[in-house]
Amino acid sequence: MTRYIARRMLGMIPTALVLLFLVVLMIRVLPGNIVDILLSDFGASVSNEQKERLAEHLGLSGSLPEQYIRYVAGVARGDLGQSLWDQRPVTTIILERAPVTAEVAVIAIVFSVIIAIPIGVISAVRQDSPIDYILRTVSILGISLPSFVVAVAIVIFPALWWGKSVPFTYTGITENPIQNLIIVGPPAAVLGLRLSATIARMVRTTMLEVMQQDYIRTAKAKGLNDYGVIARHALKNALIPVVTLLGLQLAFLVGGSVITESIFALPGLGRLLLESIASRDYPIIQGVVVVVGFLVMITNLLVDLSYAYLDPRIRYS
Questions:
Q1: Which of 289, 265, 267 is nearest to 277 (CA)?
Q2: HSE value, Cβ hemisphere, 13 Å, CA-based, for 197
Q3: Do 165 and 288 share a domain, yes or no?
Q4: Each residue of 195-218: pLDDT tens digit?
Q5: What is the pTM of this model?
Q6: What is the structure's pLDDT at 238?
Q7: Is there a domain that residue 36 lies in?
Q8: How many domains in the chain?
Q9: Closest-CA residue to 202 (of 96, 299, 256, 124)
Q10: Is 35 in the same domain as 113?
Q11: Is residue 89, in this structure, part of any structural domain at all?
Q12: Residue 281: exposed, middle, or buried by beta-carbon count in 10 A (0-12, 13-18, 19+)?
């Protein structure tokens, strides 16, 4: 297992280098001169020296290979640059915002798994029954509804019908856990709704396939009841593709948080990214992309390691 992890970590280095190259290239391929765009509000009063200082601050001085080497060296030291507007380190800003997004993502995943697995199992066990058709219809509806529509509905309809709305002042989990859950719960449910519908359909499909395997028929022939067959034999094997799907959906959760956090006024990474795009704070945009990219790579590694637990036949040697 240790050797496998070491090989995977080494294999992630080329991917990380490609990611960093794309992040550095991102600013150069944007239309127009980034320095001129950022200083356009100051008119002709901007000197060439000021432009050169800003270009150096953005890492745009020198050739593309030089910029790339400097940025990689900075990331290796944990330095993602400084914000253009408040001159604070990008790493510090991201660390301040990341716990909010992480909390929303964890609650969304837990919410989706708790709902999706029972729905998928019941739908598979009761295949082509009325309850199966109902659950499949609900799953399709959950996939079809855009997250921002559900988020806006949660904000608007309670205010119209009952004169109440979700709170928009964020409270940290250490300050008031109950109030924090009231604030974070709705956006987490919005993100988890679509994810739960996708997982439920995946669980149903994999369960139908697993239930046709020989070892399931053998377990039934030995007199094991339906609960034992599902819980001890079928479900663990059926969850392998589901775990893979959860790992792939991490990027979707972060992407969905851009709109969801803005609607619910949460100070997370998604809102930070949107604010940075609006203010053209390119170092922060680059930093968020790098952090999310690294997080996705680490999550995929953890997903691969979880296979050995779900299926003992899998060996990493």
A1: 289
A2: 18
A3: yes
A4: 888 888 888 888 888 887 777 777
A5: 0.79
A6: 79
A7: yes
A8: 2
A9: 124
A10: no
A11: no
A12: buried
